[in-house]
Amino acid sequence: MTQAVSDEIDPSSEGGADLEADSIEIDPTLFRKVLGHYPTGVVVVASLHEDKPVGLAIGSFFSVSLEPPLVGFCVARTSSSWPKIEATGRFGITVLADDQQETSGRFASSVGDKFEGEHWVPAPVTGSPLIQNGIDHIDCELYSVQDGGDHLIVLGRVRYLDVHRPDAGPLLFFRGGYGRHVSL
Predict the structure, then answer these.
(1) Terminal-residue alpha carbon distance, the chain
(2) What DSSP line would sit under the chain, residue for residue?
(3) CB of 135 within 8 A of CB of 147?
(4) Residue 75 within a domain
(5) What's the number of domains the chain is made of?
(6) Is 144 contained in some domain?
(7) What are the average pLDDT values for consecutive 10-residue runs of the chain, which has 184 residues?
(8) Structural domain contains residue 115
(9) What residues have CB less than 8 Å from 46, skipping those under 6 apart?
């Protein structure tokens, strides 16, 4: 089953198609299936809340701006970890390597202590947890949080970043599972 929005334009409307956003229905299963064909990298966003590390896996991480240096990600409004991270006003981001599937799975789950058995170091500026053996580390202060429907769009101002495993491949999420980058 496929869905499409009509590409016919009503010539009487100014500026193109006259579609009301609420009148368009998109099947959530199809939405996930279509967007699942676009590979995304996986990161862990973490902070210290009441002196304990707290974190979550994110598959919608992106660069935003060079001046000022900003990165962003989207997080579900239903996340129980995000309010704790947001309250600190700072977070560390670890870009996971393709050999860190287990880490990603744990941080995507609702287990009590996601850091159990995980080695991490404090970020140099904010002290946020950065997971060892990740490809990259990015240390951020919370810049803004915007509405994004059933998600929040979070922007972080970068205060420190570094590449730790330049030869490692990124952990990718594709079609509902993990994958690897293959160099040509």
Answers:
(1) 34
(2) ----------TTSTTS----GGG----HHHHHHHHTTS-EE-EEEEEEETTEEEEEEES-EEEEETTTTEEEEEEETT-SSHHHHHHHTEEEEEEPBTT-HHHHHHHHS--S-TTTT--EEE-TTT--EEETT-SEEEEEEEEEEEEETTEEEEEEEEEEEEES-TTSPBEEEETTEEEE----
(3) no
(4) yes
(5) 1
(6) yes
(7) 43 50 80 70 95 95 96 96 97 96 92 92 97 97 96 97 92 72 58
(8) yes
(9) 53, 54, 55, 56, 85, 91, 92, 93, 94, 115, 120, 128, 129, 130, 131
Looking at residue 23, its pLDDT comes to 76
Range of the domain at 85: 40-172
- The tokens for 10 are 């009503």
pTM of the predicted model, to two decimals?
Answer: 0.81
